[in-house]
Design a protein that fits this description.
This protein has 764 residues and is α+β, with helices and mostly antiparallel strands. The chain is built from 28 helices and 19 strands. The strands form two sheets. It has a 16-stranded antiparallel barrel. A two-stranded antiparallel sheet has the order 12-13.
Length: 764
Amino acid sequence: MDIPKYTLAFAITALLSTNYFIPFAWANDIHLPALQSAYEQNPANEQAAYNYALALARNEQFSLSLNLFKQLSDSSTNPNILYDYATVLAWSGDNMGAISLYEDQILHREIIPIYVKKNIAGAYYKLAKFKEAYQLYHEVGATGDRQARRWEAETLMHMNDIALGNNVYDQLLLEDPNDIETYVSRGSMLILAGDPVTAAIDVTRALQLIPAGQGGNPERQLRNEMSIAFIQHGDYSRGILLLQPTIIDGSASIKMQSNYIYALRLNNDYKLAIQEATKLWTDLSLVPDFGLQALADSYLRSAQPQKALSIYDVILQRGNERTNLKSVKLSLAYAYVKSGNRSKGLSLYDEILSAYPDLAYIVAEDAASFIRSNEFLTGKMLYKKLIAIFPNDVLYRKQFAYALSEKYMPRESYEQYNALSTLKDGKLAGLSGIVSTALAVGDYRAADTALDSLEESYSYSPLTEQASKRYEARPKGSIEYNYQVESDSKNNDTIIAELTAKLYIRGQFSLLAESNRNIMNNGVNSATLQTKSFGLKYQDTRQDATFWLDNYHFTNLFTGYRFFANHYFNDNSVVGLKIERTPVKDLKSLLLPIMFTNYQVNFHRQLDLKDQYNVVFASSNYSDSNDSKTYGVNFEHTMFSNEEKTLTWFTSFDRMNYKYQEINGQPLTYEPPTVREAYVIGFKEHWALEKNSWDANLRAVWDRDRPEVFAFSPSVGIEYSHQFSPNKVLVAGLEYGFHNTLSTNINNLGLGYKQSYLYYRVNW
């Protein structure tokens, strides 16, 4: 499979041709031992030495033959010795030597034998000197040599003189419509010219013309060679079609079978490649390395890395020098990672980078592949190895930063763009990337600074113009309206109307304002809690913090506060802190009011795009001397995801312990149980349309307020979202919860709660 593309047509037509390069005098079957004896008895005899040198060449003993021709050419004036010396050089593969001898000592002679011109033309052809090859083939072809005319057409095609090349082919076929070699030659050249459809017509015609039962199985040979041509040019399906008849009738050699599996693997038909290889190869020890690698690659891409590992090991144990063992080691490292053995895979990548630093670009491709397939940690570790080895290489940092931003990891992408901006050849891309990633996380100061540097140093660059447009289109503020209605089984009804405004004031700071109206009805009394809040938010690429000062009005006036902060270790790991002093939102408790101060720490970790979890711990102190401790954990796993649909299952556990249920012998207004706990498992589904999306969820909940027994409290909800524009979105939702009142021995589901909500946001 390693024949250079520019010589493939030449090689195929030479194999099928009955007209060889050798001079006519060589066609006699001369007994080599007799000529050797004659030469050894009289080595000074020029004719004996000449005959022996020719016989050695015919028997492919080129080294001895060329030594004799060198001696003879230095001492003889016989031009035939010079002609045959050049011919044998070409036959031996020393194309440069043949051409040098021809140009130095033969070119300017008046009469040059046809066979010499033909062989020297072949030497020029093999060195891709097509202009020189064409001139000689044209001269030979003018004598009526059809093979030389075919090769003349090939050289014209290589020189992109397609019209003249086709004229030569057309004339040959006009003279002989059944000329197999001409169909093969033109088909091969059309493959190289990027016209596989017409090439396939010529190849099919050539196959039809091969006489049935001809010795040497030329049809199989032609199918093999032409399939290689199609495969090398990237037309794997036609290569497969050419090989299939030999696979079906069992005439394919083990190498042809390997080409077939190789083509299937390149054509992404991994399962078929495995099925066919399993049928064809009962003994893998007979299979060439490239066939084994194609099978192993197919296993790897069919999510069967363990089977791939065993085959890669077999190839490496063979240690065949002609096999690209570097490629096998790369595939083996990839397979280790995919099989879950990340440490062994990364260790092998280390060995590869140490031994073959020229393969770093392939390691970078693997790193990008890992990130695309959501194996973030492995991909990031590989890129960091590459950057450590090539700290001043702009390409790997650019690839790393882009791969991170594609998977919406703007903070880590920002770090790479920031480092890129310090490199000489990476400053433009780095600064442009800083603008986009800083805007994504709301760090307008960093984006503004980078944009100033861009406009100062690269004012005419398209990247600067794009960055400027992104900066001008950044959100400068927003207004959100939220309306929510909820009822529960205890006749508690709540209506919440909330309006929130946000205004970016400078760089990393935003002013916040909020108005909230909470109407509560417990079936006996109804009252409204009104809240006016003002806040300030800070955010950069690594942390954000928000502080709210709340003013409450019920039957009296009182104040509270809320503080939220997040620190991002990276885009997938964040720790959050919440401190708030707010009232207990119960009608009787608000009359006092009873306030509670809550301290909460949570840690969120996204393992990849499929798995994430959150852990929470909170401690609350109440103004009536009560306190509570809360802890919980939830886990989500995405079962299926594409551009239109995502299906996720989730589970969670929450537990809250209250210190008191009574104080001074009096029951508490907010009815705290000893322990409140819930175990949840559920499913979420998301459908995305052009501007609309739907979300549905189904939860199965087992909960209780101790000392009550566990009850089954499932819920179902649906949400609709409409994106009017990038700056306007409307969300509406409805949710119903049910409750199995086991504590009263009624084993049926009743309404637990119902909730509806409407949310609208406008950015400007």
